[in-house]
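hey so u asked for the seq, here:
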Amino acid sequence: MNLVLLEEDELGAAGKVRLTGRRREHVLAVHRAAVGDALTVGLLGGKIGRGTITSLDPLEMEIALIDDPPPPLDVTLVLALPRPKVLNRVIAGATSLGVKRIYLINAWRVEKSYWKSPRLSEENLREQRILGLEQARDTILPSLELRRLFRPFVEEELASIARGTRAVVAHPYAASVLPSVLSGPMTLAIGPEGGFIAKEIESLQAIGFEAMTLGPRILRVETAVTAILGRM
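ran it, structure tokens below
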């Protein structure tokens, strides 16, 4: 936890706040904080600053929020729902890298059972984004939406979402190679393990997406997400 993330309803009078639960345990066990120590804190949706510990039991801090969070990554991530065991890492990682809009979508190679995973609960998806913000010292929570039907999403929504951006679909068998440096607004689509099938690639190309490859190596979804976002 590189930032203690606070919510508006936790703020007390005169900039004081009391920590409980997971954050309290982390501050005491990992930071081994003592009275007078200062930690980096941030207000969800707001500014970043310093929190000085005034008491350990209960754990209380006086905070001063003065700095803006880091700039967002100008990319919308359209991600075929990954395996539940890696979903948490992908969401937290994308959040850490500054993504502020995420769509989890269906695809032919996404197993139906994935959509029944408890990791798709609103509570868990929010927790993973919070963990990503804490890691990166950020405070702006990404939006995250689920789309269980591929064709209606692509044909009715995605063109509008991608308008004004460079739209790219990562595809291991594409002829074009993704540039080593990417800039400007971008909409990035990444398929499931094994990639999107040919008909799905064609549907994406029909609304303006460029199919591009990272090279001859076939990467896992979580590796591909990090590798591409790291080029921006």
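The first strand starts at residue 4 and ends at 6. The chain has six helices and twelve strands.
lmk if thats what u needed
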